[in-house]
Structure formats: structure tokens, C-alpha cells
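Explain the record.
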Amino acid sequence: MEIIVSLLVGIILGSSITYYIAQKSQHVKTIREYESRIQTLEKRHQQDIKDARNRSIDGSRAVIKGKIAEQLAPVLPNFKYLPSDARFIGDPIDYIIFNGYTQLKDNSGSESDLEIIILDVKTGNASLSQLQQAIAKAINAGKVRFEVIRPDAYDQNQLNDQNQQLQPSFPPQKYITDIRKKHPRAYEAWTKEEDEKLIRLYREGLKPNQLAIEFQRQIGGIRSRLKKLGLL
């Protein structure tokens, strides 16, 4: 009987030890697998950091090159205008080119040869921003004019007359014709009576959209006139 009990105890102990060893072996194997995964992830993480740094450096270099190109554009071989005619702005557009200005200043050119160009410098695959595209569309639509502002002016009506004389033949006639289908008085010169009426109605509380209907002009034209009259 004692032999049988001893045998059973031995079998149980042996099984337990075997199970423990097997479990420990599996545990060690699992740990090693996770350690291997961690090492792989660490290597991948380090590579990602390296790639990100390289992209950042490349991006910074591209930005720096772009800035340098913007500043040096007038002296580069493919710049077709005189550097002395170029005026750097930087934002939202890089340059205004007064093409023909130098010759006109030196009495070697004529007013009819003078041309104004809005120019932006792009490098690589860079394209115009959404805002720059909007500016280009406005220019191509002829929404450009010349104004004179005199903060110390004493006769606003006289200045308005001077500004009207300086107005170029912009926007194009076709554009004006289309606008006047909806706003018959658009781009017409303001009369003294209209100015007085505009001032009175604005002070009575009418909004620009209501004034636009009253004067048969665009809201932008109403706002512009209100600003010139010192009401906005």
C-alpha cells in the first residue's frame, strides 16, 4: 500500500514539475516574442523619427530656397523686367512691377509704354494659394483703380473730382455692361446731390444693401463712397 501511495505521489510531483517546466518554457518564449516585437517597433520608431527629421529639413530647405528666390528674382537671368522697376511686397503677392518706369523717369520712355504687373515668384511645384488666385481673378476682371488719399484735405468734393480724373478705363467695358444690368448706376461718377442724399439716408439709418438699391449701385460701391465721405 505504501508503495502505491509513494508511486502516486511521485507521479503527481513529476506531472506538476513537468507542467511547471512547460509553462515556464512557454512563458519565456512569450517574453522573447514580445521583446522581439518591442525591438522591431523601436527600430521602426527610430526610422520614422529619422524620416520625419529629413522631411522637416527638406521642407525647411525648400522654404529657405523659396524665400531666397523671391528676394533675388529681379537679378536672376530669367527675370524679364528691369530690377529698378520691381518693388518687393512679399505678402500676399511678391512684387509689383512698374514696367517702363525707369525709362520714363530717365526721359527715355513714354507714358503709353508704362505697364503695371502683379508678379509672384514660385519655385519647384509650388502653386498660387487660394487667396492669390482670388487676387489674380480680381485683376484679370479689371477690378483695379488708382486713388489719392490726402489726410489733411479740406475740400472732399475737390478730391473726389481729382480721383475720378485719375480713374483708368477699368474695369473693361464688357464687365461694366454686365454689372449695369443689375446695377444701372454702377461705376458712374457721383454727383454732389447724390453725395448729400447718401449722407442723409445713411444718417437716417439705412444699411449699405438698402442704399445700393436706392442708388442703383453695388454694395461695394456704396461702402467705398461712404468711406470717402468719412462715414465708415
